[in-house]
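new request in #modeling-help
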Amino acid sequence: MKLTLTIWRQKGPDSKGKFVSYPMDNVNPEMSMLECLDVLNESLAERGEEPVAFEHDCREGICGSCGFMISGVAHGPQPATTVCQLTMRHFKDGEELVLEPWRSRAFPFVKDLVVDRRAFDRIIESGGYISVSTGNAPDGNAIPVGKEESDRAMDAAACIGCGACVAACPNGSAALFTGAKIAHLGILPQGQPERDRRAVRMVAQMHEEGFGSCTNIGECTGVCPKEIPLEVIARMNRDYLGGAWRERKNVVTTIAPVSDWDFAKK
Amino acid sequence: MSSAVASPRDNRAPGFWGSTNGKKAVMAVTGCILFLFIIGHLLGNLQIFESAARLNAYGRLLHNLGELLWIIRGVLLLCVVLHIWATFQLWSRNREARPVGYKVKKSVASSYADRTMYWSGPIVLAFVIFHLLEFTAGTIHPESRFIPGDVYHNVVAGFSVWWVSAWYIFSLILLGMHLRHGLWSMFQSLGLNHPRHTPVLKQAALWIAILITAGYISIPVSVLAGWVR
Ligand code: HEM
Ligand code: SF4
Ligand code: FES
């Protein structure tokens, strides 16, 4: 099949970017979106041009590395699918696809379709953990967990941190991601001791990173490859409201965001 | 490739009001109080369909509340101020959150009413100011005479001007859209969401919004149609 890929090309954060159109004549409908970019990059390399930079790792929809906007929708038109799992047969022959990187102040631009999502790492660092004693492995099922709770926690834990929720949100909010991380630990008995602190700290870090606020409109869930439900955002709000009220110390340490991707200056 | 640069952004942790979540909780509570007022106000206004005497008596009753009226007005004003203050701060934060926009952007899951809260809200504000000047203070009463205390006459005279009615109807449709999203969103902001109950709540929000809008709009429509004179 024939496709035209119109891709955002930008060398580095400080250089000027522009859209460049690449007509492709021989797209195999069974290729994934990333394989399609691989094919394009080979031809670019043959012509001595700079290949298109994009992130990828597992290519099976579980690592959260890949992701960009395809014609205005994060991860493209197929619901619950990352770009690495999105096959080209979902597009029409002759279609033009516009590929853009995630756009968010909290995700500094790196190159072409790549942005820096370490803001997510810092949010997790600030509270997305539980404290356990190391040493011998604990007995299995020593702490009973109900089936329903375990399912809900696992569903929230399915978040791969791809950033599509932020990219799709008109406010650039990270509520769905942060909500998923707060919910998946907060639902389990092991997550209870740090529940208040977790919510307060992760919300503080989310704020520090400059993400926008949530208006509960659900664009995030609509594009989320793991179909994380809006319920986790309510969960974050509940834990945050309770935690902010109960915490005795009103001091939270956050990590200053860093951004060190300056190709252009090198 | 990299030389670590610490961000120049200040690093104070946000307090409750400082966080977006806290502000949204305040918006939810103030929005809920305003919603209760909207209901009460509608029930009061609908007395116009009983008789002129009934509506004017209701107006007198409110004015005779004395201090209580000022307490109610104070609470409502406080709610409006907090609601709008949060609106403004969140709006400017959200604009900063995406400095570079998309060439193509599509919505996949939200409705028009969901996406236009930052339009419907401020237009409702402009309407409320106009409305207070027209029917409470009487300073703006285009093409008719304002008689203090004669609520019935003021309403009929006011709405007989077609563009006053048109602006009223337009604004109330926007209020309806605001409530269609806001009435369920406020539960979400306060941490309540349930896979079984939230869909019911969303449906209820839609119908309550329609009923409220229809209830308010019935008054100017009846005046224009000549049913209420
Ligand atoms: C008569 C009055 C009003 C009522 C009953 C009302 C009610 C509500 C409710 C219940 C919410 C949902 C809160 C939440 O999601 O937590 C809301 C949200 C909102 N209101 Fe109002 N409101 C009114 C007037 C206004 C005015 C005058 C403005 C603006 C100047 C405004 C701007 C907004 C905005 C922007 C939101 C969305 C906030 C967000 O999701 O970030 N509202 N309103
Ligand atoms: S919530 Fe969904 S869209 Fe957001 S980072 Fe996690 S997997 Fe990606
Ligand atoms: S490359 Fe791992 S999720 Fe797409």
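bot summary: Helices of chain B lie at 20-45, 52-63, 67-97, 112-115, 117-137, 151-159, 162-189, 197-225.
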